[in-house]
Amino acid sequence: MLETLSPTMRRVVLFWLPLLALIVGMAYFSQTRYDPKKEAKLGLDRLNQWRRQAGLNTLTVSPELQQAAQKHALYLSKDADGHDERNRSNPHFSGSTPQERATAVGYAAPIAENLTIGNFARSGRRSVDGLMTALYHRLAMLHPDHDEAGAAWSRGKYSAFVVKQGSSQDRILCDNPPQSGAHRYVLTTQCLGQKTEIKLSQLPPQFVGAVKFPIGANIDPSYDGKEQPNPMPEHGKTGNPISIAFYGNQNDIEMISFKLFAPTGEIAQTKILTAQNDPNRQLHKTEFALFPIEVLEFNTPYRVEFQYRENGQNHTETWQFTTRKKRHFLEF
Question: Which Pfam families match (predicted)?
Fold first, then answer.
């Protein structure tokens, strides 16, 4: 039969059709090979790796936050509504807002929710890596006072990864507020989604210092420009943003300079975001970010220098990171 075909058609039958079948088969396998429980665990493990790299405590699993994350991931696998749940007929509907969903499973303290949704499945590790290049999500995931979390991964019409974080200290205060004794302080917080005042004899301990990222090794060199809301709406793909956030300090932080250095010298094309010029008004006055306009080089060391003034004195924070190697020759 092949002898009756033209040379062009024989090439199609003998080469291109088998190649197409191989590509389709590989694509199908890549979408069906994921185990939801495994991907959820690997995603949380990956987040803890980045937190350790940033000098922070790791997150232990909270059964309540795990349950809330699982319910929302299942909801998102049918309706890609992001942090909101609008479709009450969805069998996995568990609350309109992240806090409502946490409260519904018995988690009383404030929480932070971060997630990814897509038409194609992505591993838990890659989901977290993507979130860590998204400025606003990263800052929430690296909150130093968080010490417990729940993560979930689900695939249906859409693929979703959800991680919810909270503070065990806040949870305990909400669950069992002090009932007696001298009260010198009043802590105003959210318990069960409601503004709550808790009287305390002493303030609970808080992290004091700066959280810097990226720091260490195996850093993604780029930000894909798809975070919602987008901190860089006038640009597409950029370099992975550099961020520094100060915690546990009520003093004003006045930025003097924010610089990024490659082995060849300072990177000149950057944009610095602060609370004053953040287009989405998401940044706190103690949070600062530098976006390299161009994607960073693979497998390259970088140095960061942040100079600031606090209480009339000048200070400098410096740190280093190295971007990861290419995963394959087509990556650029």
Answer: CAP (PF00188)
Q: Quick one: DSSP state of residue 4?
A: G
What tokens appear for 248 in the block? 């546990």
* Cβ contact 223:289 at 8 Å: no
Which tokens go with 96? 């309109």
Contact 45, 130 (CB under 8 A): no
Q: What was the pLDDT predicted at 332?
A: 66
Q: In 77-132, which residue ranges form alpha helices assigned H by DSSP?
A: 98-104, 124-132
Q: How far apart are CA 195 and CA 188, in angstroms?
A: 7
How does pLDDT run across 89-106, given as a tens digit for each residue? Answer: 999 999 999 999 999 999
CATH architecture of 35-167: 3-Layer(aba) Sandwich (3.40)
Angle between helices 124-132 and 36-53 (to 10 degrees): 40
**Cα separation of 243 and 272, whole Å?**
10
Q: How far apart (Å, rounded) are the C-alpha atoms in residues 61 and 100?
A: 20
Percentage above 70 pLDDT, the chain: 88
Name the DSSP class of 12.
I
Q: Is 327 helix (H, G, I), strand (E, B) or coil?
A: coil
Domains of the chain by residue range:
35-167, 171-200, 209-323
Report pLDDT digits (tens) over 259-308.
Answer: 999 999 999 999 999 999 999 999 999 999 999 999 999 999 999 999 99
Q: What is the three-class DSSP state of 83?
A: coil
CA distance 316 to 288: 14
With contact defined as beta carbons under 8 Å apart, do 160 and 39 qualify?
Answer: no
55: left (phi over 0), alpha (psi -120 to 50) or beta: left
Q: Does domain 209-323 have CATH number 2.60.40.1220?
A: yes
Q: Which two tokens stand for residue 135?
A: 């400025």
